[in-house]
Amino acid sequence: MKTVLPWTTIWIVISWYGSNIGVLLLNKYLLSNCGFKFPIFLTMCHMLACSLLSYIAIAWLKVVPMQTIGSIKQFGKIAGLSLVFCFSVVLGNVSLRYLPVSFNQAIGATTPFFTAVFAYLMMKKMETWVTYATLIPVVAGVVIASGAEPSFHLFGFIMCISATAARASKSVLQAILLSSEEEKLNSMNLLMYMAPIAVTILLPATVMMERNVISITAGLARKDMRIVYYLIFNSSLAYFVNLTNFLVTKHTSALTLQVLGNAKGAVAVVVSIIIFKNPVSFMGMLGYSLTVFGVFLYSESKKGNK
């Protein structure tokens, strides 16, 4: 077992990196390079895939034991989380229409800042002054990167900041709403229940805001059938992001996941620049590096407080 486990963990981490970076780059490619401009419909496709594949993984493949919803109250809490989750994913996809992946990742790295803010506002949870101090380079790095970003777009920036804040609020809300032992769900079961609710939220939003999506997508498919394959593959990857995220945490720890996530962001930036060839400046890369360094310090400070 000692020889098998490390290699298993390494392959899980590689799969997690591949699925995370892959879905991010495919989202960008679909929304910016294919004439497909429907972030709400794209998110709905992701949630449909997560609904189906989550059920298969839990009910049939027994990846994790199935957990049941115990009450209407618990269902209401999960529905609330699903709404915030939808909001964050849609806004993130909208931002990719206007911002390069590298800048999108720089803004996304500020999640710890928003998590600390919402934890205080919602739970009155105070961190040590050292932890708060580490958030200064996190924010300063994004300010520097924003000022030096050649492809800066104000609307895209607002959408990306909003998506990052929504992701942070979802994690804090999850800790508040599902705090009792009888209501706690592991991430895979939570996704299985959240995804169908997300689809029911996103379907009317798609009909109202992206009403021509089916006809336009069909027209794009007649010109190049690959867009259908991209959508299917992209949606499947969205599920595997969650699956591998769970497996990395299971085989390592939540803190290791956070550290690996910081490195993943840097890898995604490099890969996206190579693929999309978006212009970057020295000050922009310096700002992003400062943000990543701040997030690393934040992780270390949280580790020291435990």
Automatic annotation (TrEMBL):
The keyword Transmembrane applies. The chain crosses the membrane at residues 7-26, 38-63, 75-96, 102-122, 190-207, 227-248, 255-276, 282-299. It comes from the Eukaryota. It is found in: Membrane. Its main location: membrane. It is a multi-pass membrane protein. Residues 12-299 form the Sugar phosphate transporter domain. It holds the Pfam family TPT. Keywords: Membrane, Transmembrane, Transmembrane helix. Signal peptide: none annotated. This is Sugar phosphate transporter domain-containing protein. The lineage of its organism: Eukaryota, Viridiplantae, Streptophyta, Embryophyta, Tracheophyta.
